[in-house]
Amino acid sequence: MSFSLFIEQLLNGVQFGVMLFLISAGLTLVFGIMNLINLAHGALYMSGAFIAAAMIKYTGNFFVAVVVAVVATAGIGAVMERLILRRFYARDHLDQVLVTFGLILVFNDLVRLVWGVVPVQLRLPGPFSGSVQLMAEVQYPAFRLVILAVGLLVALGLYFVVVHTRIGMWIRAGASNRPMASALGVDVGLIFSLVFAAGAALAGLAGLMAGAISSVQVGMGEPVLILALVVTVIGGIGSIRGAFLAALIIGIVDTFGRVLLPPALGSMVIFMLMAAILAWRPKGLFPVNA
User: Fold this and answer.
1) Does residue 285 lie in a domain region?
2) Which residue of 13, 49, 79, 174 shows the fewest CB atoms closer than 10 Å?
3) How many domains would you assign to the chain?
């Protein structure tokens, strides 16, 4: 492997890891705070991509599409949590898996009904559609660099909110001891709704960014959901810091695994890595909610 190819694949791995973090952050907070397994998180990822594609088609403005898609996905998540998932907080995980799996099927059928089964292209604005010369022999797509920058800014923002603000204190208190937080006056129901809506917004943001570099299609959320669950488990349930580090590790390992290893082994390497890390640290890299 040449040096230029190594740099390009390394950037691809970091960019993929940052995008995984965007979808994993909401998933790990929902699981850590609400003790809710939400398989429909991938459907929110898909919804953000389709809403963004539709808004670009009707408005012609990429940035308006991003704002509308993120806000709309947050609203969908809040409604879903309020009307359906809130009833399953006290139920066991099997019930949660069944109801959220059912939501995946509902979302997929709704998307087929509205947009059809043909993949949709999400058009990028001119400045983001070209490449940037990073080194003498390395040209890298501009939008992938945008994804990298946005993901890092979101990671810093989330870390600041969770660790250094009063809302973050309430989130960590709810994740650590829900009954005690309620007894101390924290509106746990409101916190749950806000966390779920924020996680949905991040999933929608990740979906539209992924759709811009590949395509927007029905079922696009299921493969990335599996990777997001791997990130959540490796990083430690409820840990933003753990999710970020685990997402970078998975992104880089998955990218180089698919380049350097045979296809069958390349797709297995992240699961082998997960097994090795959990054998070493059964609760993940950072089990304390952060």
Assistant:
1) no
2) 79
3) 1
